[in-house]
Design brief:
354 residues; two-stranded antiparallel sheet; alpha/beta; DHQ_synth_AroB; zinc; metal ion binding; Rossmann fold; 6-stranded parallel beta sheet; Dehydroquinate synthase-like, alpha domain
Length: 354
C-alpha cells in the first residue's frame, strides 16, 4: 500500500517479526515497554515475546481486561509505573491486545512525556481491521465512550493472524461487524462477498482483513482528523455506542462487545437511511438479514429506547447541539451529518425488533 507519511507502517507478510525487528533497530529505542491485559498476557504474550528479536531491555505492563478499565485512572497507574521503571523520551511502547488496549495504550504513549512512539500489535479481529488503525486513541469518561483522547497514528502496526486462533466466536463476530461496515460505506462488492460468509473459508480471511485495512487507511489518509470524509467510518456507531454503554450498565441486558453493539446500530441506521437518505427498503431489509444471521437479536423496551436516546446527547460526534448520524444513500454510498428525531429513532428500533 502507498500510504502518506503520517500513516502507520502496516506489517503483514510471512516475515512479520523480522520486519518488526528491523523497524525497532532503525528506530533506535532506548528500551521497550509492552502493554497488555490479563487475557492477552495469558494467551498471546509468550508467543509474541518468543518471536521478538531485540537486545533492548523489555518491561511488561499488565492491566485488568475489560472496557471498564479503559479510563484515566488506569492511565495514572501506568504513567507512574513507566516513570518508576525508567521509561524515557525514546522508550518504544508496544500495545499488545484488542481495541480497548490499543485505544488506551495509544493515549498513554501520546501523553507520556508529551508523547513517545508506539506500535500496535492487535490480537483481535476488531482491532486488526479497525481499532488499531487510524490513530484514534483515548479513554472513556464514566460510561461515555471515548470522550478523552487524541489522534496520533502508531509508528507501525503488525498484523499476525496467528493471534486469531486464541479468540472465542463472540470476539470474531465483533470484528466481523466492522468489516461489514466497511462494505456498507465504501465497497458494495466487498459487502456482497462478506454477506456470503457461509461460502468463505478461513483461507479467505487474510485477504478480507487486508481489504478492510485498505478501506480504512484510504479513508483516513484523506482526512486524518475527521473533518469530513473520515466521518463515514462512524456508520452504525452513533446508536451503537449508546447501546454499548447502556447495556454495559443495565442489570438485565447482556454486556455487548463493541462490534455486537455496532451491528445493532447498523440495522437501526439502515432504517434511518430509508427515512432520511433515500436508501431503498430492500437494501435496509438486506442489511438487517445479513447482520441478524451472525448476531443474536436483543429486545429493547420503550424505556430502554428512551434511555439510549438520552445517551445520544453525549455522543462525541455531536455538533451545535445536533446528534450527527452517518446514513446510506445506497450500499457503498454514505451520507454524513444527518439528523434524526426521536420518533424516527423509535421507529428504527421497531424495525429492528420486528
Amino acid at each position: 500500500m502507498n500510504l502518506p507519511e503520517f500513516s502507520s507502517k502496516i506489517i503483514y507478510n510471512e516475515d512479520t517479526f523480522k520486519s518488526l525487528a528491523a523497524f525497532i533497530k532503525t528506530f533506535k529505542a532506548s528500551n521497550i515497554f509492552i502493554l497488555t491485559d490479563t487475557n492477552t498476557n495469558q494467551h498471546c504474550s509468550s508467543y509474541f515475546l518468543s518471536n521478538l528479536e531485540t537486545t533492548l531491555a523489555v518491561e511488561v505492563l499488565e492491566i485488568e481486561v475489560g472496557e471498564q478499565h479503559k479510563n484515566i485512572e488506569t492511565c495514572f497507574q501506568l504513567w507512574e509505573a513507566m516513570a518508576n521503571l525508567g521509561a524515557d523520551k525514546k522508550t518504544l511502547l508496544i500495545n499488545l491486545g484488542g481495541g480497548v488496549l490499543t485505544d488506551l495504550g495509544g493515549f498513554l504513549a501520546s501523553t507520556y512525556k508529551r508523547g513517545i512512539s508506539f506500535i500496535n500489535i492487535p490480537t483481535t479481529l476488531l482491532a486488526m481491521v479497525d481499532a488499531a488503525i487510524g490513530g484514534k486513541t483515548g479513554v472513556n469518561l464514566g460510561n461515555l465512550k471515548n470522550q478523552v483522547g487524541v489522534i496520533n497514528p502508531a509508528k507501525a502496526i503488525l498484523i499476525d493472524p496467528s493471534f486469531l486462533a486464541t479468540l472465542p466466536p463472540q470476539e470474531m463476530r465483533s470484528g466481523l461487524a466492522e468489516m461489514l461496515k466497511h462494505g456498507l460505506i465504501y465497497d458494495a462488492a466487498y459487502w456482497n462477498k462478506l454477506s456470503a460468509l457461509n461460502k468463505l473459508t478461513t483461507a479467505d480471511l487474510m485477504e478480507l482483513i487486508k481489504t478492510s485495512i485498505e478501506i480504512k487507511t484510504t479513508i483516513v489518509a484523506k482526512d486524518l482528523h475527521e473533518n469530513n470524509l473520515r466521518k463515514v467510518l462512524n456508520y452504525g456507531h452513533t446508536l451503537g455506542h449508546a447501546i454499548e454503554s447502556y447495556c454495559f450498565n443495565h442489570p438485565n441486558l447482556p454486556k455487548l462487545l463493541h462490534g455486537e453493539a455496532i451491528a445493532i446500530g447498523m440495522v437501526l441506521e439502515a432504517y434511518l437511511s430509508v427515512e432520511i437518505a433515500s436508501l431503498s427498503k430492500a437494501a435496509a431489509k438486506e442489511i438487517k438479514q445479513v447482520v441478524l444471521q451472525s448476531f443474536p437479536k436483543i429486545t429493547f423496551t420503550e424505556t430502554d429506547i428512551e434511555n439510549i436516546y438520552q445517551l445520544l446527547q453525549h455522543d462525541k460526534k455531536n455538533s451545535h447541539g445536533n446528534i450527527q448520524f452517518v446514513l446510506l444513500e445506497a450500499i457503498g454510498k454514505p451520507v454524513i451529518d444527518c439528523n434524526a428525531t426521536f420518533t424516527q429513532v423509535k421507529a428504527a428500533f421497531d424495525f429492528y425488533n420486528s
